[in-house]
Design brief:
It is a single chain. The protein contains 3 helices and 4 strands; from the N terminus they run H-E-E-H-H-E-E. Helices cover 65% and strands 14% of the residues. The protein has 187 residues and is α+β, with helices and mostly antiparallel strands. The mean pLDDT is 87. The strands form 2 sheets. Strands 1-2 form a two-stranded antiparallel ribbon.
């Protein structure tokens, strides 16, 4: 919508440049009441009706190419806006495609992080049971605990990155992927 607005504003500027140069006519009309008095209370007594109509024509006799220059400048600005909007649309589309592919990669990364978290939790459980039997040292238990905590943090970070990418993609496309429907503003 912002792209469309910029294009319409550029077209408006060209039309305004064509319409405000050269021959112009202005029509003004005034209607009201007037009165003069020496005291304030007499000011509103015997009001006089006042009506004025004015028609003004203006046409430059020699503008030294000013009109053509203004119109040409507006047209060049419009062309530049059109090119700029086209480039920004392509850039926006590329951003959406990049975000979508990044989301897929992050989803795979989350799957792997969940698997690593599960394995680290199993390793910790086995190490703890073995430690309680007296077959492993406290160092081995600490290493397993650190690995479990690290895998849990990695999974949480991957989950966060996945959700951020999901909502960023939703914001870019204005589409709700869960409901399979466009996002509309509540009025």
């Amino acid at each position: 919508m912002a792209f469309r607005r910029r294009l319409l504003q550029a077209e408006r500027d060209v039309a305004q440049a064509r319409g405000t140069t050269g021959f112009q006519a202005t029509l003004t009309a005034n209607l009201g009441y007037v009165n003069q008095a020496t005291s304030f209370t007499d000011t509103y007594a015997n009001l006089q009706n006042q009506q004025q109509v004015g028609l003004v024509f203006s046409m430059p006799l020699v503008d030294w190419g000013r009109r053509k220059s203004i119109v040409k400048t507006a047209e060049l600005t419009r062309d530049q806006v059109q090119r700029s909007v086209a480039q920004e649309e392509r850039s926006f589309e590329q951003t959406v495609l990049t975000q979508a592919s990044q989301f897929a990669a992050l989803a795979e990364q989350l799957r792997l992080a969940e698997r690593a978290d599960s394995l680290a939790q199993r390793r910790y459980d086995i190490t703890r049971a073995t430690y309680l039997l007296g077959r492993l040292s406290l160092t081995d238990l600490s290493l397993a605990s650190n690995a479990k905590d690290s895998a849990k943090r990695t999974r949480i970070f991957a989950l966060r990155a996945c959700w951020v990418a999901h909502y960023r993609l939703r914001a870019l496309t204005l589409y709700d992927f869960d409901k399979q429907a466009p996002i509309v503003a509540n009025r």
